Amino acid sequence: MTARRPADSGYLIPITRPWLPPFSEYARLLEGVWSSKMLSNFGPLAVRLENQSQEYLGARYLLSASSGDVALTLAVKALGLPANSRILVPSFTFNSTVNAVIWNGHRPVFVDIDPETLNMDPRAAADQAEGAAAILATHVFGSPADVDALSLLALQADIPLLFDAAHGYGSMHTRRHVGTFGSAEVFSLSGTKPVTSAEGGLIATSDPELANRFRYLRAYGFQNDYVSHYVGLNGKLSELHAALGLLSMARIEEAVATRHRHVAAYRARLGTLLDVGFQKIATRDRSTNKDFALLFRAASTRNRVEAALADRGIQTKRYFRPCHEMPAYREYSERPLPVTESTYARILCIPLFEEMTDIQRDLICMVIEEAVSGSVRGRARGRGAVAAAVFAPPAA
What we know:
The chain is of the alpha/beta class. It folds into two domains: 23-249, Aspartate Aminotransferase, domain 2 (3-Layer(aba) Sandwich), CATH 3.40.640.10; 253-391, Aspartate Aminotransferase, domain 1. The chain is 38% helix and 14% strand.
């Protein structure tokens, strides 16, 4: 009998669920807040969170903010670019990446993605680099972008390189933590991330001037004396959020290891299906696997799998809807992005969270196998040709 989702109780298996510490541990940290009456203004817990993250990431400067969105917006502002600058961004990203550009009075220039990694394609970026004032790339699903190629491009063009590392707290590139590359990298600590403070964000940078500007910008543009040197805003991380973040950060390696175990099992079982491919992660890199995406050869198969999972009360999402096709950003769409558009037509993110059980994961796999078998009989003996077909960009 099919397990159907009750109308008023959400999905039987959600796509994600935050890990929360024992409430007693959180309450113990809050006792200090209640005693001090200091709820915000960069209190001791926020400072501890910054110091803990700085040590873990190996960042030269690490500053907190009220959200990843605010942190990214202020990071773009801290670059001090001329008004209406052109900034290279992927369209295959969460809306916040593009919003940070537009809120600062700049123009996003949408760049296509690599068909295998799903990150910004450095070759496509190079084709559009003339006249650009900065590059803002994303570590999609926690898998590091092509840091080396993008860094070289930024160096050659003499422009800053930012990374939206919302998914990347715990990711690594060549044994270095994400957070140590580019002009700055920005993390999100929202409830969908492996490390969460409910809402919160971080910026990591090696640039002392950028760090100093960010320090002012997140506090209305002033420091202590109420005299604004920049047009800032309230980007302060509260002590209540910092307390949760500290407890979550303490177990980041466990969180990443658990996600890797589930992803390895997903890949082993679903990787033999003819119609299914996965995001490519370089052997030198480590992803947090904030999300786990399936890439189907045909949109029709994706749609059938999506419907089958929904019918069993299993939540999925089509991450990411191309920004250049959204009403708010359509005026910035200057050219087709065939890989981005093809990827969105065939992608489906399936449940992945730390408290997911093996039984839940096996059920998800079983439903996917049954749905895929409607169009493909049997299993592939080799992966090479299949992966090439799944990830091949559409014909021009």
